[in-house]
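Collaborator request, handled under Task 6.
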Amino acid sequence: MKKILVLGAGLSASYLINYLTAHAQQENWFISVADADKSAAERKTGNLPNTAAIGLNVSDAFELDQLVATHHLVISLLPPAMHIIVARVCLKHKIHLITASYISEEMHHLHVEAVKAGVLFLNECGLDPGIDHLSAMQVIHRLQGVGAEITSFKSFCGGLVAPEYDTNPWHYKFTWNPRNVVLAGQATAKYLEQHELKFIPQARIFTQTEPVYMNNEAFESYANRDSLGYIKPYGIETAHTVLRGTLRRKGYSHAWNMLIKLGLTDDSFTITDASKLSYRKFTSAFTPGNNLAQLEQRVADFLGIQTTDEAFKQLQWLGLFDEEMIKLNEGTPAQILQWLLQQKWKLQKGELDMIVMQHRIEYRIGKKDYRITCNLMVKGEDEIYTAMAKTVGLPLGMAAKQVLQGNIKLTGVQLPLQAELYEPILDELRTYGVAFEESTEALT
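Structure tokens returned to the collaborator:
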């Protein structure tokens, strides 16, 4: 019997665990789900067959070592910074590891050792990164196979609330790790535009947006951290433009930039005795002036907007001017903001989320130019079995199945860019309703 260890029982775990248990009997698997909160693991496993819920302190090296050693493959849904801890234990015991997170420099450095150990450390195999890689590489390889030259590559993805449950002025609700949302855009974005290297510093990430249209809906995209790092792995060195971005609905980025200007997304220092502050006093502390009664106007003047502007109304709706007391005893400004957002942007019972992804790939065959547009829209089933959990969890589970069946010969630290991965996973995803609509237009 092959034993799979799932580390983390958070928002993205539900679909993954169900997928693994659905195949457990046929594949002769046993699935262990471990989380710092054992009750969270128990809620995810329930009465599912061939599963066990485990309480685990990942920081306890001995405890982690003993658990990993008894499994054949590990799927880590832990925070990205913790993957390297797990990877080193997996390397010690020669156990395969799969994550949905970006490859860190520390993970990169394990490549040679992982190859020598004959194990696969497959990263970026969730949604974005993940399905974006799988689907883009399938199209790119298909085009290159008929002699096409890739001239431009743009890819966008966002996890949003379904339109019928879009009930707040931000047009957004949490469907994945809230901390990642709050800290988004805190690194310089790098991309290629018409053969020119471009940088967007943190202060401008949410001011330089690009419109994106899908199925008669309008979105806006802000640039991801490093689009340049995918040019060589994708094999698109001929492209004059390469950009990866995150999708939000119109108006989100402008309002979020107001929070950045105020300093409320700062994660670099801790406010002690935060619970003695109201949100109104918290906001005032970041705003020039000291007349609390005139806070609204002070904030508007500082941000260069009117109190009647939509962006100001979005800030107001969050409760930043309310007398409600902060519930955290202490925390960074980002943590205090996150706690507030988690109350305001919570996906309520019965509400559905939606995943949107688009690739725009331009190419040349002979003297003619074309553009392929690939659109993906997936809606969740409920507030637990979300589209986010589905599109993050299923590729992880499907990759695990291919590895344990012996169909993947790759070793070392890898991205899911090869046909041996994208062909079976994309084929199986279609049976779950995760399929792209593709259209081609001539540009010349």
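The cover message to the collaborator said: "The CA atoms of residues 58 and 64 lie 6 Å apart. The chain has three domains: 2-122, 131-254+349-387+434-442, 275-327. Please let us know whether this matches your experimental observations."
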